[in-house]
Amino acid sequence: MEDKLYYSYNDIHNICVEKANTIKKEFVPDVILAIGGGGLIPARIMRSVLDIPIYVVSLSTYDETNNPINEPIIVQWMDFSKLRNKKILVVDEVDDTRKTIEFLVNKLANNEEISEENLGIFVLHNKKKDKVIGINNLSISYYNYGEMVENKWIVYPWD
Ligand code: 5GP
Q1: In the prediction, which pLDDT does 97 show?
Q2: Among protein residues, the one whose CA lies closest to atom 15 of ligand 1
Q3: Percent of the chain with pLDDT over 90
Q4: Which residues contact 130 (CB under 8 A, 6 or more apart)?
Q5: What residues are annotated to the active site?
Q6: Buried-most residue among 7, 10, 31, 73 (CB within 10 A)?
């Protein structure tokens, strides 16, 4: 049995377009907040459907020697006051342990002008595994994913 899952740009494009059309009706975001690097390409594809601005933060869960680390490192941040009272769709490529999403949602939810009601998440892939936090315990009002996948390493076309 293959120990990795492979996706083409075409697969990713189809997932993003289909889900962006759903999210446009179900969540109706005002802005996309892409998590770099993996969320950048999905966010850009989704923008073609959603037609809303993209903001970016960049996080890393691996150290300089490529070993996984416990708490994400901030590579680049942004001024969250720009997101005041906006409906924010956070976009990343994969929900693995959920540490990255938990980290960013907590940082966003710490701002008075960013309410739980205005926070939504989209990931291309949600891995079937134990997560550090349940979706219901995150300060968000919307969560959607492209596909639920086995707990295997996913190889993206940009990897
Ligand atoms: P987390 O464990 O915080 O949910 O995921 C952290 C980050 O690890 C993801 O944003 C992604 O960059 C990377 N990651 C986790 N699993 C995979 C995978 O299967 N394939 C790839 N390419 N990256 C992954």
Answers
A1: 96
A2: 96
A3: 93
A4: none
A5: 96
A6: 7
Query: Is 37 exposed, middle or buried (CB count within 10 Å of its CB: 0-12, 13-18, 19+)?
Result: middle
Q: Residue 46 C-alpha to ligand 1 middle, in angstroms? A: 20
Residue-range domain boundaries for the chain: 4-155
Residue 71 CB coordination number (10 Å)? 11
- Torsions phi, psi of 50, nearest 5? -80, -30
Which position has the token pair 């446009």? 24
The pLDDT of 56-77, averaged and rounded, is 92
The CATH architecture annotation of domain 4-155 reads 3-Layer(aba) Sandwich (3.40)
Which residue's CA is minimally distant from atom 2 of ligand 1?
97
| Ligand 1 contacts CB of residue 142 (under 6 A) | no
Percent of residues, the chain, with pLDDT higher than 70: 99
- Residue-level pLDDT at 63: 83
Q: How confident is the model at residue 65 (pLDDT cuts 50, 70, 90)?
A: confident
Residue position matching structure tokens 């969320």: 39
Q: In whole angstroms, what is the distance from residue 36 CA to residue 50 CA?
A: 19
